[in-house]
Amino acid sequence: MTGTQVKEAEMKRWGFFLAMLLSVSFVLLAGVSSADEKMTGRIVLHYTKSETIEVGDNVPGHILGVAQQNGLVLYSTGEVARKTATFTFDLVKGKGTWSEYSVITDQDGSILFSKAVGTAGPVDDGKKFVIEGKIECIGGTGRYEGFRGPGIVKGERIGELKTGGDAYYDFTLNCKKP
């Protein structure tokens, strides 16, 4: 081998080494960025079941209830997922608190579990029913394995719970692997 051939062989080895190093770095960095997910979008749901009872505490219009919702999560990235939620509410004359647990199933089969709490009630002389709250990632499967983190939701219910109303929520979630 001539001196030039040795240098060319050495440069090829270094080129191969650098290419491998860059490839591994790319894979590792992609994994790091997927560990933190800021998710935003809109959730559109239909109330499939709802039951209420009057509390009987001599407070007019005081009800407790439980309801189920099914619908879609429309991520700002263009992805779409299914959502199922069960929630409870404690309202006086239509205004009060709620809490829910949700299962969000992405098209790739990954599942995100969340819980949320907030307030709800009529505004604009009862023309709108506004819903606001805090949401939290509490775990998951697939790409959401071990996710934890806070977020917010804000939206509106359209129609009455008794008649199978609908709702939409705009959300932001900041989920991370611990």
Protein architecture, described:
- By secondary structure, this protein is an alpha+beta fold.
- The chain has a single domain (37-176), classed as Beta Barrel (AOC barrel-like).
- The chain is built from one helix and eight strands.
- It has one helix spanning 3-35, and strands at residues 36-54, 62-75, 80-92, 95-106, 111-123, 128-141, 149-158, 166-176.
Alpha-beta content class:
alpha+beta
The tally of strands reads 8
How far apart, in Å, are the first and last alpha carbons? 54 Å
> Strand order across the biggest sheet?
1-2-3-4-5-6-7-8
Question: How many separate domains?
Answer: 1
CATH topology, anyone? AOC barrel-like
Cα shape = elongated
What is the string of helix and strand elements? Answer: HEEEEEEEE
The CATH class designation is: Mainly Beta
Low-confidence stretches: 13-34
- So, the CATH homologous superfamily? SO1590-like
| Percent of residues in helices | 10-25%
What composes the largest sheet?
8 strands, antiparallel, barrel
Determine the strand fraction and express it as a percent band: over 45%
CATH architecture: Beta Barrel
Mean pLDDT: 84
Total DSSP helices: 1
Q: What integer value in Å does the Rg equal?
A: 25 Å
